Amino acid sequence: MRSLTYLFLLVLPLGLLGCGGSSASGDGGDGGAPASYVPPGEKDDYYLFYSGGHSGQVFVAGLPSLREIQEIPVFTPSPGHGYGFSKKSKKMMGEYRWGDVHHPGLSKTDGTYDGRWLFVNDNANNRVARISLRDFKTKQILGPIPNSMGNHGSSFVTPNTEYLLVATRFSVPLPKGTHAPVETYEENFNGIVSGVDIDPETGEMEVGWQVKTPPFNWDLGSTGKGPSDGWAFWTSYNTEMAHDSLEINASQRDRDYAAFVNWERAEEVVENNEGLNRRNGVPLIDPAEHEGVMYFVPVSKSPHGIDASPSGRWIAASGKLQPTTTVFDFKQFKTAIENEDFQGEFRGVPVVNYDAVVEGEVPVGQGPLHTQFDGEGNAYTSLFIESSVTKWKLPPWDKETKEDMSKAVTDKISVHYNIGHLVIPGSDTKEPYGNWLVAMNKLQKGRGLNVGPEKPETSQLIDISGEEMEMIEEDYTRPEPHFAQAVPADVINPIEVYKKENNDHPDARWDPENTGVERTGPDEVTVHMIAKRSQYYPDKVEVQQGDKVTFHLTNIEQVSDMIHGFGIAQYNMNGVVPPGDTQTFTITADEAGVYPFYCTNFCSALHQEMQGYLEVKPR
Fold it and tell me: Taking Cα atoms as reference points, which of 297, 273, 295, 298 lies closest to residue 284?
């Protein structure tokens, strides 16, 4: 009996090791840890940039761990970052205090990610923003874009970051601001495709040109590469041009249209000033009057996305209401244009003969939305209705596959639940990094702890390095990621401090002797202040009631992670100043009294002692 007890105790720990939280699938061969496990002190292989949806922000996670690392505030104030409180960020945000971020796009050089910038769209307020990946800060918000409403078909970056290409979800009368009854939608409303010009050195954006379209609802797009370089692609729904009950009225036709837009031709039209009109100061191209700018291609009913393969030859589009992904051959598309192989026109825009350009319809499953590529000749399509991802082979296909397109499908995996977007690192480049796929699922359905009626969304990590897909890991995201992009960590080279010699703020101060409080007008006071562990200089500020008080605060630290905050009690103010940076904050001292200010970001053992007082004397 004693020997049996000894044997049981010996075996028990082995059994417990096999019953841990990680499933057997995805075992990385390291003590039962999943392949996604990143040990303490080690770093992820990729940055993963999630759009934050109606939070207005961008979420940064590591891949493969899926652990959230940082939030980048863009369109919405963020007290934790001091964003929306400084003079600069307030001015950049303008009159809007939220946004709806859907589709991030990384900057590229020669068709691959270059680690400089991340661009995001605001579906609600018709804006785009540029984030520098040197410091993970928003540097520019452009918009509202003239003549554009519902900037959803965005943000798509050309192979050398010449343009950010965006398209409208909603159509309105032009120029924007004109009124027409919605009952006259078909006659008086238009959509817009915009080419946002990007300065190659600074990244500064401005609207370069626009293409007028029929009042379709433009959805997701992509930019070409290789043989399709110079082109961009969007799918549309509501080619019925309905204005109400779209769930029914925008699903009447058997097919909708994709737009194939030659942005190099659009650029040429503007440069040559070929009889252009301007609307709200922007050159507006009518594709019916300028040959070669735009072509329509019939596509599966109610599509939601279109994606160019790494080679740039194969263009994949999916219709939500048709269980197939259609593959177009761009080379055949060019031949069809040369031969004028059209099946008609729509408002003066040629409609290319579908049979002349389609390579095949792959039966991927129910509710196909978006497609990503691994660079090994495989494509992966999300299926919203089936809650699955289908893997299938890109052309060229052999004769047997062409006769039975189901043979192109090589694998399928279930996800939880109702997947929308999916992302493979580098899928929209000519050289994807095809080891991982992240499924971004819309419904959690009780897979995590109950947090009340508002649920997080789930992201699931899938290993695609082998012939069969393998579910590895699951994590949760705040509302509401739509799309994401992922890039190898070594492509990005962020700074850790703002170096003193690079600080060009005219009111920066680096020595306590140069700080102070100065009355600069009858009702204006300027404060030059520095912050260092663990004191403000000055730490007493005297003003009169009603004064406009401007603080120029420099964090003189030159050590990584030594951030200082600046919160003023009862003044709805919180600044966050990274090491080496100078920021400007303005308040109106409208209430007499004494108000503490203090460091809101933990900085040292004497963090609690880092405080001062704002004395507001009554008039």
Answer: 273
Asked if residue 305 lies in contact with residue 371, where contact means CB atoms within 8 angstroms, the answer is yes
Task: Provide the sign of the torsion angle of the four alpha carbons 579, 581, 582, 586, taken in this order.
Answer: negative
CA–CA gap between residue 205 and residue 11 (Å, rounded): 65
One-letter amino acid identity for 129? A
Answer whether 325's CB lies under 8 Å from 368's CB.
yes
Q: What is the DSSP annotation of 331-366?
A: HHHHHHHHTT-EEEEETTEEEE-HHHHEEEEE---S
Structure tokens at 566: 């600046």
> Cα-flanking dihedrals φ and ψ of residue 91, to 5°?
-65, -40
On whether the CB atoms of residues 507 and 552 are closer than 8 A, the answer is: yes
pLDDT band of 235, cuts 50, 70, 90? very high
Q: β-strands 540-544, 611-617: how paired?
A: parallel
State the average pLDDT for the chain: 93
Count the alpha carbons within 13 Å of 585 in the hemisphere toward its beta carbon.
23
The predicted model scores a pTM of 0.94
Residue 294 CB coordination number (10 Å)? 24
Give the C-alpha distances (Å, rounded to integers) separating 546 from 90, 214, 358, 415, 614.
21, 54, 70, 59, 13
297 closest CA partner among 239, 367, 252: 239
> Is the separation of the CB atoms in 55 and 101 below 8 Å?
yes
> What is the rounded CA–CA span in Å between residue 230 and residue 162?
10
Residue labelled with tokens 């109610």: 302
DSSP 470-536: EEEEEEEE-S----EEEEEGGG----SS--GGG---TT---SGGG-EEEEEETTEEEEEEEEETTEE
How many other CB atoms sit within 10 Å of the CB of residue 366? 14
Residue 277: predicted pLDDT: 87
CA 510 – CA 173 distance, rounded (Å): 54
Q: Where are the beta strands (DSSP E) in 240-338?
A: 255-262, 277-279, 282-285, 294-300, 303-308, 314-319, 325-329
Q: If you ran DSSP here, which 8-state letter would residue 80 be given? A: G
How long a stretch of residues is the chain?
619
For residue 8, the model assigns a pLDDT of: 36
20 confidence band (pLDDT: 50, 70, 90): very low
pLDDT 10s digits, 108-163: 999 999 999 999 999 999 999 999 999 999 999 999 999 999 999 999 999 999 99
Which element (helix H / strand E) includes 30? Answer: strand 27-30
